[in-house]
Amino acid sequence: MCGIVGYVGRSEAAPILLDGLRRLEYRGYDSAGVAIVDGDRVETRKCAGRIAELAKLMTARPPTGTYGISHTRWATHGKATDQNAHPHFDASGKLALVHNGVIENYQALKDELIQEGDNSFTSETDTEVLAHLVGKLYDASSGNGTSPVQTPKARLVNALRTALQQVIGTYGIALVHQDIPDFIVGARRGSPLVLGVGKEENFLASDVSAIVAYTRDAVYLNDFDVVAVERDKFEISSVAGEGSNYEVSKVEFTDEDIKKGDYPHYMLKEIFEQAGSVRDAMRGRLSPEECTAKLGGLNMTTAELRDVCRVVLTGCGTALHAGMIGEYILEQLAGIPTEIEYASEFRHRNTPMTRDTVVFAISQSGETADTLGAMRESKRKGYRSLGICNNVASTIARESDGGVYMHAGPEIGVAATKSFTSQVVILNLIGLLLGRMRHLSTSEGTQIIAALQSLPEQIEEVLNLSDQIKAIAKKYASASGMLFFGRQFNFPVALEGALKMKEITYLFAEGHPSAELKHGIIALVRPDLPSVFIAPDDAVFSKNVNNIEQVKARKGPVIAITSGEGAGRLAKLAEDIITVPKVPDFVSPILTVVPLQLLAYHLAVELGRDVDKPRNLAKSVTVE
Ligand code: G6P
Question: How many CB atoms within 10 Å of residue 230?
């Protein structure tokens, strides 16, 4: 979603800001802009479209200067136009501001400003209203004879604070003023902002990956923090004007980790990283001696874990699908009643919950607005609220009562892949831990550990099928869409397969429990709409075969993902068969999802889609 990069130092700001924006490109955006203070003038370049367009504008008329701000916008208020692109200016044209998030009361604030005589709005955005408000407050503080005169820096910080006290909504902000040299100001509430601490230079960014090439020392700002940044110092306070606690931490990954290497796309790189990321999700967490998992990050005593009577899992998109599998896993391995809820529904639904319920917010980024909202609501109600996150510095990770990190490394491709398999592994670890405190015997624990430990090698085996899957993708390149079916643990995999397909190929795709076929979906079956059945050799295999027969009887082509004896039994039924290793059902999704990721990937490439930056999508959705 929207990205922010700010710089103040001794180097030219333009290339640093542009490079930072490029590193955030994967997150999704539809316009981009920069504002750099060039001597005594703030120079801006901005346009709808890709960063490449912005780069052309900057080459045609290069802005020079050693401090500035920049932004990629994912349109919320107003279309993706040049006018609506950030930065936005105040009425004086001296203050430039970029903003992530949504100012919910922007119309009321705008009406008030207009009533006071401000008629200089040039965009439809909520952000411009904020710029005007801060600018008005700054100008008004220039000395009215009654209060002591403050420095321009203090006035600007105070103007921002006063403005933010009037704002309802979420924000990550960076701003500059042309009259205040070498000074940028940032603030956050609900939208991430990180300060990068360098030598005689400092940075602001909405995501640390934008600045990790320049510094690995970072301060992850908290909600309601305001940061005043200069070349060689910074000061963090709160919106209310109080001091704020912070620590400078080392960024977990390096610039190398966020490079594509020899892969044509991040998505393919991340699909192929899964043997390693799954191994990392388990590293140090399996105890073969005690036949259980060790998850110290949950911050729960054995007695507390023993008392858990109900689990609620919540998330969005791919994380939701992992949670759906988690429901099956936790009920099977631990025998604990478990529910999965869309984070966006859970946060407003007022679900009745028992005292001993624990809530897990599942989120790769740890910043998804709805998942964060759900976790905060659960905390407000006093439930133990835990996170399953990849981004260790994220808001969910920091605000949760504990949790389990994925350690999957940065995931850049918009379509989530390795985070999904890591999430399912972690849900298995949680199932094993809770199960061993209940009915699972030592030998059952040992079998589960063995199943988990075999996964990395088995994933490698599935990855070796990439060429076969590529050929299948080519064959169906002119399909009008694709249907996905699965049962039990593999029903959510059908949903995930369909999600991957629509996200990056833009083909119509739906996932359903196989048995639902005859309750309506079968009306869609036709020769140009292939059905993908996730039908491993398990307890419900024969039932899947019945459903495949129903599709075949209506001339629908079938692609089957199967295992064990499945290939033999499906030989005469399915046009294409992809065979993955036979494993217990609780780990099966970790293998069956991989061919679906590859199928979507190869089909998207075949169709010439922009795999890593699919249209309209954002990697991290920080608005509701
Ligand atoms: C967006 C992304 C999806 C992702 C979802 C949840 O919709 O495009 O790929 O699954 O957000 O993201 P999270 O970071 O919370 O796992």
Answer: 18
